[in-house]
Amino acid sequence: MAAQNLKVFGLILAVEVIFFIVISHKNDQGGENGRVLLGKELSKSAGRLFNGFIPRMEQLNRQPGLPTQTGKIDETNIYSLRHALPRRTAAGTPIPIMNKSSFSKLPRWAFDDVYNFDAPPRPTTCAKSLRHSKDKTFQRNFLPNIRMFLHKENFNITEWNRLSHFNSPFGYMEMKYDDILPVVKLIEKPKEPLLLPKAGGDGCVRCAVVGTAGIMNGSKTGAEIDAHDYGIKYVLIPEGLRDFQWLQGLLKGENVSSGEYLDHEPRGYYSGQFNESHFYVLHQDFLRYVRNRFLNSSNLNGEHWALVRPTNGAFTLFLALHTCDTVSAYGFMTDDYNKYSSYYVEKHLRSEVIFYINHDLILEKNLWKSFHDKKIMKLYQRTG
User: If you average pLDDT over residues 126-137, what whole number do you get?
Assistant: First the structure.
C-alpha cells in the first residue's frame, strides 16, 4: 500500500516542520497529474513535541471548534500603531521588539488583513479549476495571488517593521532584525509557477495532498497515489530564531554555528538530494492569511493565543489550493476520525487523536468537509 510505504523526508525543528511536495504528471488518459505529499513528522506522537507547555483541550474545558468567522476582526481587540510603538523610531530602523507577554489574546491590528501580492497567477484553461468555484464565501476570502514564498527580494526594513507585529510563524515578534536579515538574504527568489499543466493535456494541474492520518490504513488508494513520476520540492515553515539559524546552515552548506542545533549539518538530512532551486520558504503573509480568513480559531481569544496556529498539514493543503486546479486530500481528519488511529503507520498500537490547544482540529475538520461539499476540493472519506 502506498500509504504504508511512503518515504519520509521531513525534519522536525522544534515546532517547525519541513514538508516535501511531490510533483508529477500522468499520461493523457486522465487521473492525477500532480501530487503534493505531506511529510510525516519524525516523532512517535505529535504530542511529544508539546508535552509540558501546551495544555490539552479538556484541561481548558473548551467547547468544540466553532465555524470560522472568516475575515471578521474582533473590534474590541484592535491595537493602534501608537500603542505598539511606545517611542519614535528613526526612518530605516527596526521598531522596538514586541513581546507576546504584552497581550492577553491575539492582538488585532488595522492592517491585520493586509497582505503582499505577487504577479497574477497563470491563466488557467482548466474547466474544473477550483478558481471557477461559484461559492461566494470562498471567492470572497480566496486570494489567488497572495504572496506565498519568502525570499531576499521581498524583504526590507519596512516589511520587518510590519511583520514584527505578528507572532511566529506569522511574523517576527520577539526576534531581532540583525539575526534574521543575513539569513533571508540567502534565500533566492524561487522559480514560479510551482506546477504547470502537461503539454497537450486539458490544461488542468491536478494535485493530491497526502496526510498521515490512520484513515489511510486499508484505504486501497495506493495505486491511485503511486501512479506518478516524482520530483521533490521542500517547503519550510520557519518558527523562531533557531529555525532561521538552521536555515542559514542549510543554505550555506555549513554546520549550524549557534543555537539549539549547534554543530548539526542540515544538508545531511536530505541524503544528498538538496537542491536550492527545489527549496521554498513560506511567507508570513500567506500563513497569516490562511489563519485569518479560513481558520480563525476562537482559541486565539484566550491566554494561550500565541500557541494557536493551523497545522502544517493545513498550510500544505492551502499551498496546493493556490498552486493547482483540482486538489484531492488524503489522510486528513474526517467526521468519523475516532474510528482510526492517529497515524497510518500504527498497524498494531492504535493511538487516539489528542486535542491540544495549539491546533483547532475540529475547525480544520469542518473546513475540509465544507470544501468537499462545495466541490472546492475532494476529501477522501471512508464509506464503510
Answer: 95
179 burial type by CB count under 10 A (0-12 exposed, 13-18 middle, 19+ buried): middle
280 in Cβ contact with 118 (< 8 Å): no
Q: How far apart are CA 342 and CA 162, in angstroms?
A: 38
Q: Is the pLDDT of residue 133 over 50?
A: yes
Terminal Cα distance for the chain, rounded: 19
CA distance 246 to 260: 9
Strands (E), 250-319: 279-281
Instruction: Return d(Cα 27, Cα 39) in angstroms, integer.
Output: 25
Q: What are phi and psi of 256, to 5 degrees?
A: -65, 125
Phi, psi angle pair for 153, to nearest 5°: -80, -15
Determine the residue type at 203: G
- Whole-model pTM above 0.90? no
Number of Cβ atoms within 10 Å of the Cβ of 375: 13
Cβ–Cβ < 8 Å for 151, 277 = no
Q: What is the pLDDT of residue 384?
A: 59
Rounded Cα–Cα distance for residues 296 and 67 (Å): 9
User: What pLDDT is recorded for position 349?
Assistant: 66
CB 241 within 8 A of CB 223: no
| C-alpha cell of residue 220 | 486501497
Strands 16-22 and 232-236: antiparallel
Distances (CA, A) of 312 to 167, 229, 300, 320: 16, 24, 17, 13
| Helix H or strand E encompassing 83 | helix 81-84
CA–CA distance, 113 with 173 (Å, rounded to integer): 17
What pLDDT does 348 receive?
Answer: 65
Place of cell 488508494: 221
Cα torsion angle, 284, 186, 233, 331, sign: negative
CA distance 204 to 280: 23
Question: Which segments of the chain does DSSP mark as H helices, in order?
Answer: 2-5, 81-84, 136-141, 157-163, 177-184, 222-226, 241-252, 284-293, 312-321, 361-373
